Amino acid sequence: MAQRHLYECIALHQAGRVEEALVGYRCNLARDPGNQEILQYAGLALRHLGQFEQAGQLLAAAISVKPSVATSHFNLGSLFLEIGLFAESVVTLENALSLDKGFAEAWCNLGVALLSLGEPLKSLASLESAIALNCAYAAAYANRGKALQGVGNLTEAQKSYRRATIISIDQALAHVNEGLVLQSASRFNEALERFNAALCCMPDHGRALSLRAVALRHMDQGDRAVINHQRALAVTNRDAITLTEFGGTLLELRQFDHAASIFNEALEGSADATVCLTGFGKAVGRLARHDEALRSFAAAICFQPGYAEAYANRGLIFGELASIEKALNSYRFALLCNPSYPEVEIN
Q1: Are the C-beta atoms of residues 335 and 344 closer than 8 Å to each other?
Q2: SS (H, E, C) the chain
Q3: CA–CA gap between residue 12 and residue 255 (Å, rounded)
Q4: CA-to-CA distance for 178 and 21, rounded, in angstroms?
Q5: N or C end of the chain: which has fewer CB within 10 A?
Q6: Which positions ≥6 away from 318 have C-beta within 8 Å?
Q7: Is the pLDDT of residue 6 over 80?
Q8: pLDDT of 197-228, one tens digit each?
């Protein structure tokens, strides 16, 4: 009877009625607390509901009851991946693969975890294993594109993203990442097409909206860029990366007060402090707030001593203050960091 009840719970779970299913799983666990299958399904339900700590406890308990089930290790490793415990995810997913080397989803998630730990070559090997097992695995191709970007192979990265979208047209992430590759090559019209494709799949995709705005900015469509930035901020709850990209557009549009305010807000989040500080310095520098600008560039250089843009813009401020020797030294440092830095060549 309890087992039949379990199957009814699973049916509810698969139909999206997760809270009802969880009530049933808990009733089953009360009768049979050491049942590996029930522990696993209950853990998956809790994960779906965002109760990650309890989910992890039940998934770990399922492994303790029956360590030889690869799926149990995979589910716990995937939970670790979702909540950002990448090292723990790698260990747990490797355990799953030691039990089942033909587990394509485990290879894919292992690749994602390794990439998050800054290991693009190892990530690429894992994702290639996933694709070898399932040549129509869109998510593996999409993440393979990210790994290829990580090793600097942009041509193959674009091909991998395109393959993902051919397999599954709703692969919004693949469209976004292909757009990023094209945008980095200044192919803004093509990048815009990719971001538009992502938004056809997912109209409220915050990254696609923000990156479409950046592409539009480079295409001298400032008003449309601002509208897209504002939409992106609304759907991302004003996250730091989206704010930083908006700040860059406002600088281009010479809205310096607004840009300074946006970069300052971004600094309160988890954005790249070097980029934010440099953007803030550029904005207040254009407003003749020279001391603030110099402090901001100095802070950016402390975060990233080889950041050419901070040195170059610091040189501009020193030039405006008629501190010629300091300006020249800043430009020299910028050229040491990046010999082709354009603003330095002008000066």
Answers
A1: yes
A2: CHHHHHHHHHHHHHCCCHHHHHHHHHHHHHHCCCCHHHHHHHHHHHHHCCCHHHHHHHHHHHHHHCCCCHHHHHHHHHHHHHCCCHHHHHHHHHHHHHHCCCCHHHHHHHHHHHHHCCCHHHHHHHHHHHHHHCCCCHHHHHHHHHHHHHCCCHHHHHHHHHHHHHHCCCCHHHHHHHHHHHHHCCCHHHHHHHHHHHHHHCCCCHHHHHHHHHHHHHCCCHHHHHHHHHHHHHHHCCCHHHHHHHHHHHHHCCCHHHHHHHHHHHHCCCCCHHHHHHHHHHHHHHCCCHHHHHHHHHHHHHHCCCCHHHHHHHHHHHHHCCCHHHHHHHHHHHHHHCCCCHHHHHC
A3: 53
A4: 39
A5: N
A6: 294, 324, 326, 327, 330
A7: no
A8: 999 888 889 999 999 999 999 999 999 999 99
* Residue in the structure block whose two tokens are 């170059």: 312
Asked if 271 contacts 287 with a C-beta cutoff of 8 angstroms, the reply is no
Nearest by Cα to 334 from 323, 325, 345: 345
> For residue 343, what pLDDT is reported?
56
Q: How far apart are CA 285 and CA 170, in angstroms?
A: 44
- The pLDDT of residue 342: 67
For the chain, give the mean pLDDT: 90
| Average pLDDT for 314-323 | 94
